[in-house]
């Protein structure tokens, strides 16, 4: 296996299986230090392979979520969430930490538009707003 060949689980196991099983890689006896060195290299390559597989899978998941959500338009206070292969709008879980107060038609003052719309989403009610002016 040259350094430019594609690294796969099968290729790693084929090359390093004898070392992983404690067998000599060639007809002559290999020292314990050599076996440990080869074992370490095998584990590092396997780690890199696993990392590549996991990061690729995460990339596909994010790309799939973006594609599914690109056709969904959520109202204020909601965001697109993908469950399995279904995109739907759900109440936002948090709002940016800032203070720009708004008055709700329910008589309450909310820290931001986001907080007002999140409250309306969670309570399944309609709350309109106007800008709150501080004296």
Automatic annotation (TrEMBL):
Source domain of life is Eukaryota
GO BP terms: cell differentiation; regulation of BMP signaling pathway
Against CDD domains, the record matches this protein to: KAZAL_FS
Q: Which Gene3D superfamilies match?
A: 3.30.60.30
User: Which parts pass through the membrane?
Assistant: 39-60
Q: What is this protein called?
A: Kazal-like domain-containing protein
Looking at the record, the residues that make up the Kazal-like domain are 90-135
Q: Which UniProt keywords apply?
A: Disulfide bond, Membrane, Transmembrane, Transmembrane helix
Q: Which GO terms describe its cellular component?
A: extracellular space
Q: State the Pfam families in the record.
A: Kazal_2
Organism name:
Petrolisthes cinctipes (Flat porcelain crab)
């Amino acid at each position: 296996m040259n350094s430019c060949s594609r690294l796969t689980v099968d290729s790693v196991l084929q090359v390093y299986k004898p070392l992983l099983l404690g067998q000599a890689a060639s007809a002559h006896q290999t020292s314990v230090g050599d076996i440990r060195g080869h074992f370490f290299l095998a584990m590092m390559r396997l780690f890199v392979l696993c990392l590549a597989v996991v990061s690729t899978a995460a990339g596909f998941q994010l790309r799939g979520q973006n594609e599914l959500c690109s056709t969904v338009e959520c109202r204020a206070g909601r965001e697109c969430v993908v469950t399995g292969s279904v995109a739907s709008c759900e109440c936002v879980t948090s709002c940016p930490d800032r203070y720009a107060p708004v008055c709700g038609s329910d008589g309450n003052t909310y820290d931001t538009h986001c907080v007002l719309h999140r409250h309306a989403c969670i309570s399944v009610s309609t709350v309109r707003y106007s800008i709150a002016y501080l004296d």
